[in-house]
Amino acid sequence: MKLQIGFILLSFSLCLHSHPAHGQPTDFPDKKWRQYATPEEAGFSSEKLEIARKAFEASEAASGLLIHEGRIVSAWGETTRRFICASVRKSFLSALYGIYVDRGKISLNQTLEELQIDDVQALTATEKQARILDLITARSGVYLPSAYAPRNMEKNLPARGSHAAGAFWYYNNWDFNALGTIFEQKTGRGIFAAFAAEIAEPLQMEDFAIEHTYYRFEPEKSKHAAYLFRMSARDMARFGLLFLNHGRWRKKQIISAAWIKESTQPFTKSLGNFHSRDGYGYLWWVSGGINGQPMYYASGNGGQRICVLPEAKLVFVHTVNTYDNNEVSDQQVDQLLALILDAKTAEPQAQPRLVEYNPPRKPQPEAVKAASDLATFQGKYRHRFLGEMTISTSANHLMLETGIGKFKLFQIGEKQFFPADIETPISFQPSEAADQRRTVVSVLDERKKVEKVVFYY
Prior knowledge:
The strands form five sheets. An eight-stranded mixed beta barrel has the order 15-16-17-18-19-20-22-21. The protein has a seven-stranded antiparallel beta sheet with strand order 3-2-13-12-11-10-9, with helices on both faces. A three-stranded antiparallel beta sheet has the order 4-6-5. It is an alpha+beta fold. Helix 2 (about 45-60) packs antiparallel against helix 11. The protein has two domains: about 20-355, Beta-lactamase, CATH 3.40.710.10; about 375-455. The chain has helices at about 1-15, 45-60, 90-100, 110-115, 130-135, 150-155, 175-185, 190-200, 235-245, 255-265, 330-340, and strands spanning about 35, 60-70, 70-75, 85, 215, 225-230, 250, 250-255, 280, 285-290, 295-300, 305-310, 315-320, 355, 380-385, 385-395, 395-400, 405-410, 415-420, 425-430, 440-445, 450-455. About 25% of the residues lie in helices and about 25% in strands.
C-alpha cells in the first residue's frame, strides 16, 4: 500500500511541475522523421561527428541513430532494417507495466502466490512470496531455468532458496518471462497487441508489425515464454524519445511521468556479474554518466541499445546484426557515445533548418514467380548449432520459423529464397544421403561469416 500511495503522490507532484527544462524535446516525428540540415544546426561539429562515424564503421555495428530534441542529427548504417532486440524487449514491457499500473490494473505489491504463478519445477512457498516489484527489479529470489536464456545465465544461477525475495539482485530471464505471463493475465491482452495499440500506433512507428514479434516457448524448461521483438533503429528511437519526453507524445500522456522517473532510477547498484554497469531500475539499466551526462538505457545482447540522455536532450540508438553473430561490446558503445557527446560544441540554432529524413534504400534481390512446388520444401529441419527450423507455406509464399521468430521468404530463383530481415540467401537442395536430408548447413565466407544457408530435403 505504501508503495502505491508513494507512486500516486509522485504522479501528482510531476503533474504540478510538468515538463522540466531538462530533456524536453521541442519536436516529434510525424509519419517520417525530420533531420537537421547540418549537424551544426543542432550544435554539433560535423568534423567531430565524423570521428564518431569512423569509430562506428570500424566496429561490427549495423546502425546508429542520434536524435536531439526530437530530430535526427546523424544516421549511420541500416536504420530501417529490423534486427532482434534481444533484452531491449524488457524495457518495452516495463513501459507497458507503467501504463497498466497507472490504470490500476496491476499492483506491484501482488505476490506470485496471489497471482497463482507456478512453473514446471514447482515454486516453493518462500519463492511464491516474491512480488511483481521484486521481479521487475530482478530481485525475485526465484532461480529457475527459463526460455531464451544464455548459457552463462543458467550456469551461474544461485542455489534455490539462497536468497529471499527482494534481498539479492540476479539477472535471470525467469523473472522477465514470468512478468510477461503476469502482464497478460492481469490485463487480458497479449504483450505484442498491447504494445502495438498503446505505443507503436500512437508513436507512428514505421517498420513495426505484430508479425515481427514472437513468443519463444521452451516447455521442457518453463511455462513462461520469452516475448521477442524485431525492430528498426528508427522505431526504437521513437520509443526512446517517448521516455525522453517523460512519457508524453505531442499532447497525449502515454506513460505517466511518475513511472518514467521511478522506473529509470538505480533501484540496485550492486550488479554482480554486470559489475561494469552502474545500476538497474525497472527493466532499465542506469549509467553513472558518459562524459558527465546522466543516462539510462535499454540493452540487448550483442550491442543493441536505446540510450536516453535527459540533460543532453539526446536519444541514441545502436543496433547490431546478430543474425550474422556480430557483436559490439559495452565498452565500444560507451566509447562511441563519448565521441558523440564530445561533438556537441555549441547551442542549437533557435530556428534550425530541417529536411525530411529519407534513408537510402538498400538494393534487394528481385522477387520472381518460379514454377517450384513450394510444398516440396515444407517440413522440419535441423541445424547443427541453431536447432530445429520449420518451413511452411502461407499465402503462396514460404515462411521460415526459427528459435527467434518467423520470417517471410521471398523467392528469387527456382530453389533460391531471400528471408526478410535476416537477408542471408537460402537455397533448397535435394540430397541422396538419408542422413543429410532435413538438415541445414551454413556456408561461410573467408571472413567466417555466413554467406548462404542450404536446406537439404
